[in-house]
Amino acid sequence: MTNSIPYGHQSIDESDIEAVAAALRGDWLTTGPTVAEFERQIAAVAGSQGAVAVTSGTAALHTAYAAAGVSSGDQVIVPALTFAATASTASLLGAEIVFADVEEDTGNIDPDAVTALATERTAAVAAVDFAGHPAEIDALLPIARSVGALLVEDAAHSIGSTYHGRPVGSLADLTTYSFFPTKNLTTTEGGAVVSDDAALLGAARAFRSHGLVRDPELQRNPDEGAWHQEIHRLGLNYRLPDVLCALGLSQLRRLEEFKASRSRVFDRYVEGLGGVEGLRLPTKREHVDPMWHLFPIRVQDGRRREVFDRLRAQGILVQVNYIPVYWHPYYEDLGYRRGLCPVAERYYSEEISLPMYANLSAADQDRVIDAVRSILA
């Protein structure tokens, strides 16, 4: 039987295994010096003043929105084409979600759509870097500023990407990363929030640790004793342990290698699938240097389901990213209806994510290319 090719896969080597083993032999398993060093290095990659490591990309979004002060009565603008967590974590804080349509070529949130939707109730605008291609942050920031909102960049796909020569993580008010195994580097599960704003970083750090206030100068009752800690605003336990940060530190040493490998995979797909009738390939704008997380193809003429099923039948485990968020029954029950964001819906109806990961072999990639070309011939 032919081996299956997953759409994404982690890249683990002996240095990663040794790093985790060393952490297990050390004095710290949970929040210790390895977390602090991982945060320092993530901030350096991001070009930001600081980072807060958390347990997942979803936790990072929840933490970022909480740090931004999102609460009941606020509106948060998110793209329709994203994983549900971009919206659901704001919903959990009581916000009303406003879905914006996306750009036809990149699948990223459309600044013109955001302009039409932003109001004085908008607390945050979330820009998702779909597939690793950075969103148009320079266009989005002034829109957010015009209504007093913060810009959150959901960079789950794009750590290591640059926009006009600046690293993702240095662009928005708050940026979130995911370190799930299929992402551009992994801590198994994990994520981070980065920012240049000390107050936002402090709020994020408090939220990921139950909201506990340990600094006597900030406490309401500081004379209680050296053991004393207080909760002023509720938080959760989103602490990422030392053991997982040890893996993350090891992976960070290979980040440029991962980027180069993913770029080669991207370019090989473009060469191998260029000119196939009924197939649209992903866009790369001149002012971005993406760390590609996905290779999203667009299958035209209503053949997406056929191509998807036939690839899967051949052991090529393609995926679709993503169902428009407001199609989920939870949001349907709140009154959102299909047709709200037609560009995102059309993008979804055509999209298939081909296998994309650093260790994808040339032979396996040729198998994918040949299968797609054969089906669409």
From TrEMBL:
SUPFAM superfamilies per UniProt: PLP-dependent transferases
InterPro entries linked to this entry: DegT/StrS_aminotransferase (IPR000653), PyrdxlP-dep_Trfase (IPR015424), PyrdxlP-dep_Trfase_major (IPR015421), PyrdxlP-dep_Trfase_small (IPR015422)
Modified residues (N6-(pyridoxal phosphate)lysine): 183
Record-level GO BP terms: polysaccharide biosynthetic process
Keywords for the protein's UniProt record, in alphabetical order: Pyridoxal phosphate
Catalytic residues (positions): 183
PANTHER family per record: DTDP-4-AMINO-4,6-DIDEOXYGALACTOSE TRANSAMINASE, TRANSAMINASE
Protein name: UDP-4-amino-4,6-dideoxy-N-acetyl-beta-L-altrosamine transaminase
The organism's taxonomic lineage, starting at the top: Bacteria, Bacillati, Actinomycetota, Actinomycetes, Micrococcales
